[in-house]
Design brief:
6-stranded mixed beta sheet, globular, 185 residues, alpha/beta, Beta-carbonic Anhydrase, Chain A
């Protein structure tokens, strides 16, 4: 607990108090990010966002199943009530969820079996498997009624990014092909 309290003290010393005072009256994020719970993946840092700019849904494996009330509720709230203009899936290198789903015989805990056990992984290597996993989550996002409706009204753009932790490379899936590295975006 002490590490958290020390972090809070440090935060208070450097926080933009005017920004937080403005945020106290509400939020208007421009983007919904569906990211992984992995502690190495921090969407605000990766995308250079300030507090209030991203509405972030994090779970193991950046999954977006319609039947999960938590994911469906976050997506619905972001799109229908906060009116985000972008909704993206953020996949990443060395994803433990993809590795675990690739070897379901190692999933012993009921919660992990239930969350990852029905997923499949296709790919010749881990990066390809993670990217294919991300594409599947993007398709799930795009199939949600609230997202389909916003896309049809041209009020929302959806996308998929892949972040390489070791190199900081950011790849973008345009719906058909992967564009590798920020210079191609």
């Amino acid at each position: 607990m002490n590490v958290l309290l020390e972090g809070y003290r440090s935060f208070c010393e450097t926080a933009d108090r005017e920004l937080y005072a403005a945020l106290a009256s509400g939020q208007q994020p421009h983007t919904l990010v569906i990211g992984c719970s992995d502690s190495r993946i921090v969407p605000e840092e990766i995308f250079g966002a300030k507090p209030g700019e991203l509405f972030v849904l994090r779970n193991v494996g950046n999954r977006c199943p319609q039947e999960d009330f938590g994911a469906a509720c976050a997506v619905t709230y972001a799109v229908a009530h906060l009116h985000v203009r972008n909704a993206v899936v953020l996949a990443h290198a060395d994803c433990g969820a993809v590795k675990a789903a690739s070897h379901p015989e190692h999933l012993h805990e009921e919660a992990l079996k239930g969350w990852l056990g029905e997923e499949s992984c296709q790919g010749a290597c881990l990066e390809e498997s993670v990217k294919n996993w991300g594409i599947r989550q993007l398709h799930r996002l795009n199939s949600m009624e609230v997202v389909r409706d916003a896309l049809a009204r041209e009020e929302l753009v959806t996308g998929l990014f892949y972040f390489d932790i070791a190199t900081l490379r950011l790849d973008y899936f345009d719906g058909t092909h992967w564009k590798t590295g920020i210079e191609d975006l």
